[in-house]
């Protein structure tokens, strides 16, 4: 019947089965009066005592039809207080029975809801307790100072003060104020000079409900604070702050240092720009001086020697020879004089060809091309249709010498007898390209020799270009031959003055070495106990713009201290020194600064000493009496490979 009514039910043959079902979660029980023996009542009571406190298990009892209502209730006294009992006197209709059962199940369902509500409330209370414990732990142990205060307003609702409600130990440490002297008192009592910035922050949080963060100085405590304010509850504000006085002082020191550095950089930049201008003028002056000397020598050859030779030839013609022997002697002398005249004329034109002063750039390059063809058999194509007007004489002279040098290099190294010279005027620069029609040209090989020059030609051209703020580009053309491009700036290049050139050197740049602006310079620390050796090595390095000597040390202890303070890229380390030798100093430096390159330097052979330096961490070992280029190449290679 219950199943037909849609009620899930289970029939229990024994009292044990019934108690088992109750423990398993049965929602209610329907028991006949006859089955409810005293033993079963005790078993049910024992089972129900294990139920949670919110449970009142519904039991519907079908009373005996032969007993009165009172007799049936008296028979149920063993279950009173342990269950929710409902007694139905038989006979009973199906409708009544189903109604009573459903009512019992609904009552149980409400108990389940109460159970869930109690569990949820207990979970909330447990979470609150845990949250309170966490809050209290954070409150007591965080480094930031914390205060909670109530906002006080006037009758118009304006924030006028605040009342401290709570402060944490960090607050006491950072302000020097004890909690017992703060809590319960007003802000204006504790801080009579409470700054406007703090009031504005509090008002902003009260008005907007949004947190705010400010940094400012407190006149009352004479400290800087970083404060975060946020709303804790209506009319209650939390402040979380940190003492940042040391940070502010450090920032001020850094600003002062940056200002000093900026001033020094500006000063050095001005010096560098002035020197760059001086170098540019020096390049022009050197070019003019060289050309002037060439012209002087050419003038001597032309105006003196050649005229004397020519007069001598004429005098020979005026002599009368009495016999054939004298005639032959005169012819021989005349031939010698003519040879001298021709040689001096050729030398005069090479030193200072007239076209250099009188001709255009196209005419100058064509003269050079003819000279290369006559002297070496080199066929030169000239494309100089884009020549700028009013070019300075020293640039014309430099280009004449540079192109002539490059054509000679083609004859020497390419194995070809065809070349091309192209001139292009682009923006404020003149670009002169000299190329051959060879194959297999490797620009890296040329760049390597430029960094460590064995000859003076191409290196001299590049240095002259750098002094004029120009550059030398080396590449391979489409045929695989060499393509050398000279890029010369024309703006400000007209150096027409003949004043005596003066270059001022600062005290810390007495050597007049070039300033490297082309890339990162290698910073070197020089360590040697012999002053003359150390100074000689420093002078050698300073002649190469790729290196900058950042410091010197006379023994191992000084080397360790200087390496830590200066952080150079490379340490050139002598091996035998007093106080601490180079091996021990290298070991300490590589331990503390593994990225630093250490190069050993000694008069000892590359044997046990070199191995000891390597074991200590040195990248390389060079003998002091080795060529200077070997040491410079070793430094470059070590910095390039990092090994």
Global morphology: elongated
Structural class: alpha/beta
The low-pLDDT segments are: 492-518
Our estimate of the beta-strand percent is 15-25%
What is the rounded distance between the termini? 95 Å
Mean pLDDT across the residues is 80
Question: Which oligomeric form is depicted?
Answer: single chain
Count of DSSP E strands? Answer: 18
Strand order of the largest sheet: 5-4-8-7-6
Instruction: Tell me the number of helical segments per DSSP (H or I, 4 or more residues long).
Output: 19
Range of helix content: 40-55%
The radius of gyration over CA amounts to 52 Å
| Biggest sheet architecture | 5 strands, antiparallel
Structure description:
It is a single chain. The protein has a 5-stranded antiparallel sheet with strand order 5-4-8-7-6. It has a 5-stranded mixed sheet with strand order 9-10-11-13-12. Strand 14, helix 15 and strand 15 form a beta-alpha-beta unit. Helix content is about 50%, strand content about 20%.
List keywords for this structure.
19 helices; 50% helix; 18 strands; five-stranded antiparallel β-sheet; alpha/beta; single chain
What's this, in brief?
With 643 residues, the protein is an alpha/beta fold.
Write the layout of secondary structure elements.
Elements: H1 15-24, E1 29-32, H2 38-48, E2 58-63, H3 69-74, E3 84-89, H4 94-141, E4 145-153, E5 159-167, H5 169-175, H6 187-190, H7 196-208, E6 212-218, E7 223-233, E8 236-243, H8 245-318, H9 324-351, H10 355-358, H11 361-376, E9 379-383, H12 393-413, E10 418-426, E11 429-436, H13 443-451, H14 457-467, E12 471-476, E13 482-489, E14 522-527, H15 531-542, E15 547-553, H16 556-566, E16 570-574, H17 582-592, E17 597-602, H18 608-616, E18 620-623, H19 628-641
Parallel strand pairs: 1-2, 2-3, 9-10, 14-15, 14-16, 16-17, 17-18
Antiparallel strand pairs: 4-5, 4-8, 6-7, 7-8, 10-11, 11-13, 12-13
Helix pairs in contact: 1-2, 8-9, 8-12, 11-12, 12-14, 16-17, 17-18
